[in-house]
Specification:
The complex is a heterotrimer of chains A (about 300), B (about 270) and C (about 260). In chain B, helix 1 packs across helix 6, helix 3 runs parallel beside helix 6 and helix 4 packs parallel to helix 8. The model of chain B has no long low-confidence stretch (mean pLDDT about 90). Chain B is an all-alpha fold and about 270 residues long. Chain C contains 9 helices and 10 strands. Classes of the chains: A alpha+beta (about 300), B mainly alpha (about 270), C alpha/beta (about 260). Chains in contact: A-B, A-C, B-C.
């Protein structure tokens, strides 16, 4: 009877012991997996200096050609010294030969954060570099860039040339219309007497065109924006097209401005054009922030 | 002095008196629980004596191995639920494969220790409180004291040591089972292959998650044992008191597990 | 009285007062228990019999007054000092207070294993001898939940005496038992006194038991000792409380009360 108890105690001890050994084995195995250490391969160290690490943390992966080959070991801030910046030391699973024209940059792994360090070893035919530390490119900061774009757009729109220019166009066209309105009946006279109308119209068209050209070329941040936002661009294009057709009409009138003016459609054409340009400007002013942000975001996705 | 003398306080006349008294009493009980913890820690110097060793192993068997069944079931289903819920949400973005990370990280950091804590509070905590409460009522604690056998050393210390060891073990076991459960759901319901799941699961979890999770479980083990023992020793009024002590032990452990869990997360991850 | 007239005091209460819930349970309790005697404390429920017993081992501490064990004041003892004082006592609780997860034998071996440096063989020897003494020789491996109340009490008694204490305290040793078992327990108490020469303090409301085993009987009333006398004098007492208590158990002076022992 007594022995029974001893046996039971022994069974318990064995079971508890087995369980704990099992768990410890699991824990050990797990620790190895999770630390992503490869303990049995030789490691090489490498240093890269960045002006800004954008929240890179130790343990983040180092990627070459899309393949993780190591991780960030330490980050040290060096404000003084020969090379101010953040000294990032990397632990690589295998040695990496860097050539001239190498690149090291920090990129986001997802839009929700998470960083990795991307290395590209440079063209194979370039001379091999063996430096104590390599220079890293400052990271591309999505949010900062977005802020830049928004700011540029704002200055452009509120104090900058675009709004002014568009307003000039509108003013010009307005003036033409006023004149046409005022000179009703004596249209022919006004037009023949004075070729301001023609030049006015042409000036308007020119200014709109330069703007559109700039826009099309994608000059400046606002250009980038506009080139991606089709409605705004379409609005402008339509306005320009309409103006162009008027001018072309006048030009095709072969000097016989009177004949052209007789055409009832000119007046309404001009007025419609003004309306369109105005709408486009208003549209742009109102939707600028929204389109900016949404284009950034969708761009990011 | 673990056995308590019956106490009597004349009923308070007004609300403030009652309120103040309950505040003072709750402070006193907290203090007693802390003293009990300190005594149990001091009693740990006897831990490696043969009899204590045997008792600790027995308690580990009773708390740990006998809870394995319920923990396995809870763990697998917790993992399955986590995988299914996150999987359904992630499916909208074609990101089902990330259930691996979701299950692994949440099991390691939070769900593993937390669920283990709750299960042990419910199974083991209540059992300890009921056992010690019954011992108080049937004068067994008093008997131990008269025999000059320190109830803290004889009863509390082995339980505390057993729980401090077993809870992290069980929490880890729970994590593994949860991850396996999640993988099953991934494979059968969400079309995520086992390999992709495991690869994803191990990619984003860190050793820190594991360590902090185990540390949490360790604290929970201590909380459950000390609260249960304290409530057990505080039992009065016979069999009714045992029920009351058990209930209170479970409630207090639950609350403390939640609060302590939050603060540990706060300390290590913010 | 066959008891040798040894007056050195084992347990002495001096004006002990204890208040529970506003009611003085002990109110100036005074008595002196001498070496080797069997001191029986009787009285109706709620007169503080168990409370008195618990004061002797400092499970309760007096609000006023002092409890002495030998020459040592129990009130001031703490820690290891208290442990040493408590080692002089064996205490039989009402329900036996056996640890439920240990077998009867392990329960009895418990104080030896925890408090002494005896080898396992010696422990076994003493446990079996003690079990024999309480007539439970074959019950070593039974669980407390598997045995009757009377056996629990006997096992509890075995645990109380296995350390060979000087004083054994019995809290209601016969309550809740059938008369036959009660008499067995009584015989056991008497035998222990004879064989081991211990001082016994018995708390009971069972007068039959009190009269048969007691060297002196103390009647409690109102938190004090109303009367202390030998069993023979006790039944003749003119004290009203004693008389009504005697009557309630159908004991009269004319009585069937002949001590069988001497």
């Amino acid at each position: 009877m007594k022995k029974d108890w001893r046996e039971r105690e022994l069974t318990m001890e064995v079971i508890v012991g087995a369980f704990i050994v099992m768990i410890f084995l699991g824990l050990g195995y797990f620790t190895i997996i999770l630390s992503k250490e490869t303990w049995f391969t030789k490691k090489t160290e490498m240093n890269v200096v960045f002006g800004n690490v954008m929240g890179l943390r130790d343990g983040d992966s180092v990627v070459v050609r899309g393949m993780p080959i190591g991780k960030v070991k330490t980050l040290d801030l060096a404000v003084n010294g020969e090379c101010p910046g953040v000294h990032v030391s990397l632990m690589l699973d295998e040695p990496l030969v860097m050539h001239e024209g190498y690149e090291a940059k920090i990129v986001s792994t997802s839009i929700l954060g998470g960083r990795q360090l991307q290395l590209s070893e440079g063209p194979a035919d370039a001379p091999v570099l063996d430096l104590d530390f390599y220079r890293g490119k400052d990271p591309y900061d999505l949010m900062e860039d977005a802020a830049d774009i928004v700011n540029a757009a704002r200055t452009q729109i509120t104090e900058g040339k675009i709004f002014e220019k568009i307003r000039n166009v509108v003013d010009n066209i307005d003036e033409v219309v006023t004149r046409v309105n005022a000179g009703k009946g004596t249209l022919g006279k006004i037009l023949s007497d004075d070729d301001t109308l023609y030049s006015d119209l042409e000036a308007s068209v020119a200014s709109v065109r330069t703007m559109v050209t700039r826009v099309e070329q994608g000059k400046g941040s606002i250009g980038k924006l506009l080139s991606e936002d089709s409605t705004l661009y379409d609005d402008f294009s339509a306005a320009v097209a309409a103006l162009k057709s008027i001018t072309e009409g006048i030009e095709n009138g072969e000097g016989s401005v009177g004949k052209f003016i007789k055409d009832e459609s000119l007046y309404s054409d001009v007025e419609a054009t003004i309306g369109e340009v105005r709408a486009a400007v208003d549209d742009f002013r109102e939707t600028a922030p929204i389109t900016t942000f949404s284009s950034i975001f969708f761009g990011a996705f | 002095m673990i056995s308590r003398e019956p106490e009597f306080f004349p009923p308070s006349r007004n609300m403030f008196g009652r309120l103040g008294r309950s505040v003072v009493f709750s402070f006193r009980e907290t203090g007693r629980a802390v003293v009990l913890l300190v005594m149990a820690i001091l009693a740990m110097r006897h831990m490696f004596k043969k009899r204590s060793r045997t008792e600790i192993v027995v308690q580990m068997f009773v708390f740990g191995i006998k809870s394995l069944g319920v923990i396995t079931v809870v763990a697998i289903f917790t993992g399955m639920i986590l995988a299914l819920q996150t999987g359904l949400a992630l499916r909208q973005f074609n990101q089902e494969v990330n259930i691996g990370t979701a299950v692994m990280v949440s099991m390691l950091r939070e769900m593993g220790p937390f669920m283990t804590g709750l299960i042990l509070a419910a199974c083991v905590g209540s059992a300890i409180a009921a056992q010690i409460g019954t011992m108080v009522v049937s004068e067994e604690i008093a008997a131990l004291e008269i025999m000059s056998i320190d109830p803290v050393r004889y009863l509390v210390m082995p339980r505390l040591v057993a729980m401090l060891i077993m809870t992290p073990m069980l929490a880890f076991y729970m994590c593994i089972m949860g991850v396996i459960g999640g993988g099953l759901v991934g494979q059968t319901q969400l079309g995520v292959s086992w390999d992709a799941y495991i690869d994803n699961a191990t990619r984003f979890a860190e050793v820190k998650d594991l360590v902090v999770g185990m540390f949490k479980a360790f604290l929970f083990g201590g909380i459950i044992t000390v609260v249960a023992c304290h409530q057990g020793f505080a039992t009065t009024q016979g069999a009714v008191g045992v029920g009351f002590a058990t209930r209170k032990a479970v409630i207090v452990s639950f609350l403390l597990i939640l609060v302590v869990g939050y603060f540990v997360t706060r300390i290590f991850y913010v | 009285m066959t008891m040798k007239d040894n007056t050195d005091s084992m347990v002495r209460f001096e004006k002990v007062k204890k208040v529970f819930a506003g009611k003085a349970v002990l109110d100036g309790m005074d008595f002196d228990i001498r070496r080797g005697e069997t001191f029986v404390i009787v009285g109706p429920s709620g007169t503080g019999k168990s409370v008195t017993l618990k004061h002797m081992v400092r499970l309760l501490t007096p609000d006023q007054g002092d409890v002495y064990v030998g020459k040592d004041c129990m009130n001031e003892a703490t820690g290891s000092r208290l442990a040493v004082l408590r080692e002089r006592f064996g205490y039989l609780f009402q329900g036996g207070a056996l640890l439920a997860w240990l077998t009867v034998g392990e329960n009895i071996a418990l104080p030896l294993r925890e408090k002494t440096t005896l080898t396992e063989a010696e422990i076994q020897k003493r446990v079996h001898a003690t079990l024999e003494m309480v007539e439970m020789a074959g019950d070593y491996d039974k669980r407390p939940s598997d045995i009757s109340g009377g056996m629990c009490k006997r096992a509890g008694l075995a645990r109380a005496i296995v350390t060979e204490p000087e004083i054994i305290l019995y809290d209601e040793p016969t309550s809740g038992l059938d008369p036959v078992t009660s008499r067995t327990i009584d015989a056991l108490i008497a035998r222990l006194k004879e064989e081991l020469g211990v001082t016994s303090v018995v708390v009971t409301h069972d007068l039959h038991s009190a009269l048969s085993i007691g060297s002196r009987i103390a009647m409690l009333h109102g938190g004090r000792v109303a009367e202390t006398s030998t069993p023979v004098e006790f039944v003749k007492s003119k004290n009203e409380e004693v008389q009504s208590f005697l009557k309630s158990q159908f004991i009269t002076e004319a009585g069937q009360w002949e001590r069988d022992a001497r």
